[in-house]
Amino acid sequence: MSADVSPLVERLGPSRVLTGPSIPPRYQTDAFRAHRGSLLEENRPPPAAVVLPQSVDEVVTVVRFVVEAGLKLVPWGGGTGLMGGARPTFDSIVLDLRNMRRVRSIDAASGTATVEAGIVLEVLDRRLRKRGLTLGHDPWSRPRATVGGAIGTNGIGYAGYLRGTMGDQVLGLEAVLANGSVIRTRPAARSTTGLDLKGLFIGSEGTLGIVTGATLRVFPVPEAEEIHAFRLKDFATGFAALGRLYDDGLTPSVMDFEETFEAPALPWSGEAGPPTLYLGFAGAEEIVAASWRIARRCLKAADARALPDREARDYWRTRHDIIYMHDEVSPGVTRADVALKETIFDYVHVALPRSRIMAFRRAALPILRHYDVHPIGFGLWTQPELVSVEVVKPVVGERVAAKAAVAGALDSLIRKAHVLGGSMEYVHGIGVKLAHLMGEELGTGVDLARRIKNALDPSGILNPGKLGL
Ligand SMILES: Cc1cc2nc3c(=O)[nH]c(=O)nc-3n(C[C@H](O)[C@H](O)[C@H](O)COP(=O)(O)OP(=O)(O)OC[C@H]3O[C@@H](n4cnc5c(N)ncnc54)[C@H](O)[C@@H]3O)c2cc1C
Is any ligand 1 atom within 6 A of the Cβ of residue 47? Predict the structure, then answer.
């Protein structure tokens, strides 16, 4: 679609308004790529334009223009979202916020930082470290994802149990609404003043407003941080030990417990190799030492075997490497696209009551077998209630059939999580990928969500179709 965006070009200059062939292909989709188990179309049309604003005023200008021109607006941070939340439509303007990357202020005494939304998480963490502080939110995608995207998806990182989700770290927030007005909430540690307005923009994937800035809770760089790796005898024993450890009041800064399956070796027996646990504590030296004393007691009782220190060191050093798979090797083609050309690779990340985790695991494996989809990992991340299942299916014959099998398996896993009283996604949001399941997730709440959307964005200009809205 060739929309007339000349008023924007006049206002912002041609280098910050990209149209037609000057739009790089990477803007056609985020990290929700063709290798995923979804039947949504793989070939994406380019957006009508890409705009790179540098100030809140410029965002307001773009929003007003979009309303007048009858277009749509899709906020874009690092484009690392895994659910298609930043996927544009042909009639949308992509608003790439990465030129809005200033640190407005750091208040070290209060442990807060006020930043623009387009700053990359790792860049912000580096700035904070110069002041003896750290961001806390540390997802795998830290070198590429932005604060605005992390707020938009309410993401969670390695230290999620200790530091909370990205949304938990937001004290105050600045957002541009669909009518061009700007809302700024007070950056207070706590507030009981009725509706939590900032909460509207956390996890709502740009469907209710464009986040332009935020005041975040940040943390002193911990005096000590110690991570160790263990091999557990089997999943059930490790899971029980972890439960005791959390019940004793420990707050791990890292917890990653996973059994890995040999894939795609068939016939698949249903039992994985013994699981590995990466566990860490951070804070004052005495607290870390005491935490390890208690943790070791729990793990010893479960016959956990300590692995050489190198294991944990390598795990920690390489924790962000996977995000570079989403860098381009040629225009519009990422390393992941190349590596997974003949494989469908996908996952679910469900949150369950702790008492239902083992039931979910028992049900998950036959579901995957039914769809002839191979598990490669079943794990818990940050806390024992948060479960990941990773699967693959080699493409043999029809690609669409392999995708359909994975899509069917993942939907069944999610429905099982619903039956067990859980939520279908704890980390990556909904985007377009899980939009078809929002009715089942929210029940009658879907209607309320739609009414909120209509009230805030009556013309439906903000990131349409995402979150099922
Ligand atoms: C290899 C890999 C590993 C990952 N690991 C993690 C992980 O450990 N933890 C985790 O939480 N996520 C992870 N993710 C997912 C992704 O990195 C997160 O969802 C991240 O928060 C997205 O940030 P982004 O800046 O790239 O946002 P984008 O992908 O650009 O956008 C994400 C969503 O937020 C909206 N949005 C973006 N900016 C704004 C804004 N300023 N205002 C309003 N809405 C906005 C977009 O429209 C979209 O709906 C991973 C992704 C990959 C590819």
Answer: no
CA 247 to centroid of ligand 1, rounded, Å:
31
- For residue 121, report the distance from its CA to the centre of ligand 1, in Å: 11
Which residue type, as a one-letter code, is found at position 268? W
Q: Is 228 in the pocket of ligand 1 (CB under 6 A)?
A: no
Q: Which residues contact 189 (CB under 8 A, 6 or more apart)?
A: 171, 217
Residue with tokens 């995957």: 368
How remote is the C-alpha of 120 from its chain's centroid? 14
Ligand 1 geometric centre to CA of 390 (Å)? 19
**So where are the chain's domains?**
6-99, 103-220, 225-419
Q: What CATH code is assigned to 225-419?
A: 3.40.462.40
How far is it, in rounded angstroms, from Cα 122 to Cα 125?
5
Q: Give tens-digit pLDDT for 20-41.
A: 999 999 999 999 999 999 999 8
- Judged by phi (left if over 0) then psi (alpha if -120 to 50, else beta), residue 123 lies in alpha
CB 409 within 8 A of CB 364: no
**CATH of 6-99 given 3.40.50.720, 3.30.43.10, 3.40.190.10, 3.40.50.2000:** 3.30.43.10
Pocket test for ligand 1, best of 80, 92, 146, 210 (most atoms within 8 A of CB): 80
> What are the tens digits of pLDDT across the range 263-284?
654 444 556 678 999 999 999 9
74 lines ligand 1 (CB under 6 A): yes
Q: Can you tell me whether residue 378 is helix, strand or coil? A: strand
Looking from the CA of residue 150, the nearest atom of ligand 1 is 21
Q: Confirm or reject: Cβ of 465 under 6 Å from ligand 1.
A: no
Q: Is 59 in the pocket of ligand 1 (CB under 6 A)?
A: no
Which protein residue's CA is at the shortest distance from atom 35 of ligand 1?
Answer: 205
Q: Is the CB of 165 under 6 A from ligand 1?
A: no
Q: Pairing mode, if any, of strands 49-51 and 92-96?
A: parallel
Domain at 103-220, CATH class: alpha beta
> b vs e for 82-97, b when ≥16 Cβ sit within 10 Å of the residue's Cβ?
bbbbbbbbebbbbbbb
pLDDT for the residue numbered 263: 60
Which pair of structure tokens corresponds to residue 14? 């041609």
- What is the residue type of 357? I
pTM > 0.90: yes or no? yes
Q: For residue 219, what pLDDT is reported?
A: 98
Helix axes 399-419, 357-370, angle to 10 degrees: 160
Residues 120, 121, 122, CA angle at the centre, nearest 5°?
95
